[in-house]
Amino acid sequence: MLQEEYLEKIVEKLKKIVQSETSSIEKSADIIVKAYLNDKKVYVFGCNHSAILAQEVFYRAGSLAIYIPIFSPGLNFIDTKPVLTTYMERNERMGEDLVKSSKIKEGDVVILASTSGRNPVPVAFALGVKKIGASLIVITSKKFSSSLPSRHSSGKKLMDISPDVIIDNYADLGDVSVRVSGKGMGPTSTITGVFIMHLISMNVAKRLSDKGIDPPVFMSSNVPEGDEINEELLERYEDVLKLP
Prior knowledge:
By secondary structure, the protein is an alpha/beta fold. Helices cover 48% and strands 12% of the residues. The chain has a single domain (2-238), classed as 3-Layer(aba) Sandwich (Rossmann fold). The protein has helices spanning 2-20, 22-37, 51-57, 82-89, 92-101, 120-132, 142-147, 189-210, 226-236, 238-241, and strands at residues 42-46, 67-70, 109-113, 135-140, 165-168, 178-180, 183-185. The longest helix has 22 residues, at 189-210.
């Protein structure tokens, strides 16, 4: 059955992440905790479907309140027709200008998701982040990325620019896992990417708690005590969460 085949592929990749990427996830948590203790920021960026990871952890029940998503016009499906987003992701200058337009500073942390790791915007963005002196955590597929050349003028892919951490999401070439009538289907990178993001978050929360610090975790506003608990976080992070 297709359901069982897809489930098997997803579970296999999730297990691989736990077995092989735990040290990278824990290193990411250490970097984020250090930044948090030094009043630095944590940004999350991805283009198009990779932007879903930033959406998933932002203002989310069970997620940390520290994440600042970078949502760019032209690089998500909310405000841009999808065909244009493909061309925009291949515009190298766009990646450079995104960094220049951001508030990223030395000592901050940027989590950058790109499954192929080859398009000009994420590569240019990553190079800009490194130049600033922020820590860079990359979520990508080593298999996918190694299979194709870079589209960036430098010839580099995300794996080539020495991120502080690389976390493999184990997506296959084309980000498909099941063949249906000869067509590749069953994407995996969103499911594995969300899994990785929440593993990072939980490891950050555990490290803060071990230091005697109450981790800033949102609770669902649909449970009785949710609004009361979240109110303090809404005030603390109002620059990101509230209207100007």
